[in-house]
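tl;dr need the bound structure. longer version: we got a ligand (pyridoxal-5'-phosphate) that a collaborator sent over and nobodys looked at where it sits. i said id run it. heres the input, straight from their email, havent touched it
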Amino acid sequence: MRQIPLLDLKLEYEYMKEDIDSAIKTCLEHQKWIFGPEVKELEDKIAEYIGVKHCIGISSGTEALVLSLRSLAIKLKGQEFFDKTDEIITTPFTFTATGDAILRAGARPVFVDIDPVTYNIDPNKIREYLSSHASRVIAILPVHLYGQSCNMDDIMEIAKEYNLFVLEDVAQAFGGMWKGRKLGSVGIAGAFSFFPSKNLGGFGDGGMVSTDDEEIEGFVRMLLKHGGKDKYNVDHIGYNARLDTLQAAIVLAKFKYIDEFNERRSKIAEIYNIEFEGIDGLSVPASMKNLHHVYHQYTVRLNNGKRDELQTFLREHGIASMVYYPVPLHQMKVFDGRCKIFDNLKQSEQTVKEVLSLPIEPLMEEEDLMTVVKTVRKFFSN
Ligand SMILES: Cc1ncc(COP(=O)(O)O)c(C=O)c1O
């Protein structure tokens, strides 16, 4: 039986082979593995693309989050880490790294519920929390989940009103926009991931911080190389969190294709949306006005309790699918006693039981796409 994967990185490599092979060959020839020229070139190109003054290459998206938060602690409090009483508001419906980064920066994550339509953090819930707990909150960490922007107008307005900082988790939304502005340029900083399966992914781990803020840029650059301007005389508790030259070269080669690939993702999503219209019990992703969704995932929702059955049915027909994410962060042991839960997180708890991400390989054959469509339809007609 023909297998249809969620993503086909081999196919993508074949498509870009000449560019990637030549980028790797250049690295083999120059042998500048640490802070090679490709790192700076990638930083400059992405800064221009996103529309920020600075981009800083980092070893992963997770470290990009941690270093941004640590830089904020140094900038705001003159401290290496936040205090446990410092709160950062975020969503429980995300990858672990979002909440974990808050803990690693010394602060306490406050989980507020999501909007059940977009799956992103609900600005009304942020506002409700702040109306009674504002004094301890330092920042908001919105996650542009599945490639769809959060409501950044509301989030930035709230941040302004309460004097808070906004750090965007853009790991899943490279190239996505909010009202004509690229994500990662709206808050004080953005954290990107070049994990291989991301819209712009390398051949291993990698990440980036984007910011207009000179101080954040300076601190991130110090923290990523052991904590000092001078490697042999350091100021801060740092990390070895540089972006590899080789990863930078590969990401740079793939960057040429990012708009084309995001466009291909949108077209696939459009076809799914049309083909799935009217199926009782299945909701397609909501597409909010004024934004450019980059469909890192194409995620449907089943409100009939049959999500797992659909996943099994697809598997039996050779079609891969994934649940992103099966457990909300507040239910994980690592956050037990270390986070705050605002009100209830019912929408998140319900959503984890109902979502399913379908294949969205930008280069997928139309025949495979239609096989997914027909199989989903068959499941619902049974
Ligand atoms: C929302 C989100 N935040 C953070 C990360 C962490 O990125 P990385 O895997 O590059 O460390 C990821 C992806 O893995 C993610 O999806």
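gonna send this back to them w/ a short note. Residues 38 and 249 are 5 Å apart (CA to CA).
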